[in-house]
C-alpha cells in the first residue's frame, strides 16, 4: 500500500546490503524511488 512506503523505505535503508551499494542513498531518495515505481 502506498501509505507503507515510508516504512518500506526505512527498512531498505536499514538493510545491511544497502551499505554495499556504489551510490549512497538517503531516506528521501528511497522514498522517491518507491513512489516512482508505484
TrEMBL record:
Domain Fe-containing alcohol dehydrogenase-like C-terminal: 1-38
Domain of life: Bacteria
Pfam families assigned to the protein according to its UniProt record, in alphabetical order: ADH_Fe_C
InterPro entries for this protein: ADH_Fe_C
UniProt xrefs under Gene3D superfamilies: Dehydroquinate synthase-like - alpha domain
Name of the protein in its database record: Lactaldehyde reductase
Organism whose genome encodes this protein: Escherichia coli
Amino acid at each position: 500500500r502506498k501509505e507503507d512506503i515510508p516504512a518500506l523505505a526505512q527498512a531498505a535503508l536499514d538493510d545491511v546490503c544497502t551499505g554495499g551499494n556504489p551510490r549512497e542513498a538517503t531516506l528521501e531518495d528511497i522514498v522517491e524511488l518507491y513512489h516512482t515505481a508505484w
